[in-house]
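not sure who needs this but someone in the group chat was asking about EF-hand domain-containing protein from Rhinolophus ferrumequinum so here u go. i didnt clean anything up, its just raw.
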Amino acid sequence: MSQVPGTASSKVKMSPRKAEKCVMDLIDLFHKYTSPDDTVNKEGLQEMLKEYFPHFLRACDKMGKDYLSGVFEDNDKNHDKKIQFSEFLSVLGSIATDYHNHSHGAELCAGDDE
């Protein structure tokens, strides 16, 4: 069991809530692909997306969209050729938004063509 941040006593140990566990899992996923400077390069990001979001990428392919070709450039906001954690969250936010829209009947990967 891990200690939950913000608990009143450092002696109190609780299991993280489901949402907290999801956040910790995202951090672990990011760290699985980071270099020592805590960033992910283009190849690492593409490898991660292929491994962890294959259904999404297949849906994009069926829609005729090459999602992987622009995802890095679209999310490397400071143009340093590296994806920092906040930029990684932007990538996941776009994918999560698409899945949310899919839950309301939209085709998967039918989002904007920005």
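also The radius of gyration is 17 Å. if thats useful
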